Amino acid sequence: MMAIQGAALKTATTPMGILDLEFAGTVARVDEILQAWQYLNNTALWNNLIDYGFLTAYSFFFAKGIQFVLNQWPSQHWQKLSGILLLLPWVPGILDAIENAFMLGWLLNFVPAYSPALLYWMVCVKFAMAALLFIICFPAWLYNFYLLMRPKS
Asked: Would you tell me how many other CB atoms lie within 10 Å of the CB of residue 46?
């Protein structure tokens, strides 16, 4: 949905669309992107607002995945880490929400000088943590799918 809604944000200056703004890194690059999108500001704003729904959904999705992992493999090692593991899915979502707040500020013409570099690192951490959560959860989801699909005896 976000890709379709934000398709117009992919330009010669921003071939990755909204991701170019997320990874801008400098005020000069943010200004360049905003200039390229001067007639697409509403599209960028809506794309950013829709992302709040997406980040909520993927946070819950990963939280359920971690909960499933802990339930499937109730070893002492997993249980000792359960408090941390149950918090992990919310970190990328929180970082994404903060990132969206920065981008809304940029789209509304308020760009703090420090924010593009800070945002760049937040986005890197967000994507790294989401990848880690996927690596943790995906085998569990496959195993669960296998259990659901295997013939009952």
From this structure: 13
Nearest to 22 by CA among 125, 139, 135: 125
Tokens of 89: 């899915």
Does residue 92 have a pLDDT over 90? yes
List of residues 6+ apart from 69 with CB closer than 8 A: 78, 85, 136, 137, 140
Say how far apart CA 72 and CA 86 lie, in whole Å: 14
Rounded average pLDDT over 81-109: 89
Residue-range domain boundaries for the chain: 2-144
Instruction: Evaluate whether 122 touches 98 at the Cβ level (below 8 Å).
Output: yes
pLDDT of 55 > 90? The answer is yes
Report the sign of the C-alpha dihedral through residues 61, 63, 67, 69, in that order.
Answer: positive
- Buried/exposed 64-89: b ≥16 CB within 10 Å, e otherwise: ebbbebbeeeeeeeeeeeeeebeebb
Q: Is the pLDDT of residue 102 over 70?
A: yes
Using H for helix, E for strand and C for coil, what is the string for 17-43? Answer: CHHHHHCCCCHHHHHHHHHHCCCCHHH
Tokens of 71: 């339930």
> For the whole model, what pTM was predicted?
0.83
